[in-house]
Amino acid sequence: MTKQLELVLHTYDLELTIDEQTELVDLIIYYCESNQQWMSECEDGIKECEIADQIRHLPFSSHHTETITFTSDQIYCINHALNQKEESWNDNGEGFELGIVDKEGHLTGVLGDIDKKIEEVI
After folding, report:
1. Pick from 11, 16, 38, 72: most CB atoms within 10 A?
2. CA–CA dist 122, 117 (Å, integer)
3. Residues 6+ apart with CB under 8 A from 61
4. What is the pLDDT of residues 65-114, one digit of tens each?
């Protein structure tokens, strides 16, 4: 008897405004630039880089809010990038003064909005 394995691909739909789409692409570019060595030398990093490339090449809109479907790997990559950005601004000490993070250390503005949307789906 042959058993077949079924691959279940989990996807998540996020409704993103034009600003959120733009900030997401910028965030992913920054994430890749900040982690170049890891993403070129380590097996996990290389995989993360491939996922980041997928995100950068998604069909984002330049004219209106769009519902974008992300795989679970893409959502987790975005979440890693958001967490890194949040940590860097908290470690920096200027994040609160500049309004990038709030008093609790969470991202504000457009990146904060994206972070909240991701938290809702995962």
Report:
1. 16
2. 9
3. 18, 21
4. 899 999 999 999 999 999 999 999 998 778 888 889 999 999 999 999 99
> Residue type for 122, please?
I
Given its phi and psi angles, is residue 11 left (phi above 0), alpha (psi -120 to 50 degrees) or beta?
Answer: beta
Residue 42 token pair: 């380590």
Q: H or E stretch including 67?
A: strand 66-71
What are the two backbone dihedrals, phi and then psi, of residue 98, each rounded to the nearest 5 degrees?
-85, -5
Instruction: Tell me whether strands 66-71 and 11-16 are parallel, antiparallel or unpaired.
Output: antiparallel
Quote the pLDDT of residue 1.
46
Dist CA 94 CA 67 (whole Å): 33
Rounded to whole angstroms, the Cα distance separating 21 from 109 reads 13
User: Cβ of 49: how many Cβ atoms within 10 Å?
Assistant: 19
**Both structure tokens of 4:** 């077949």
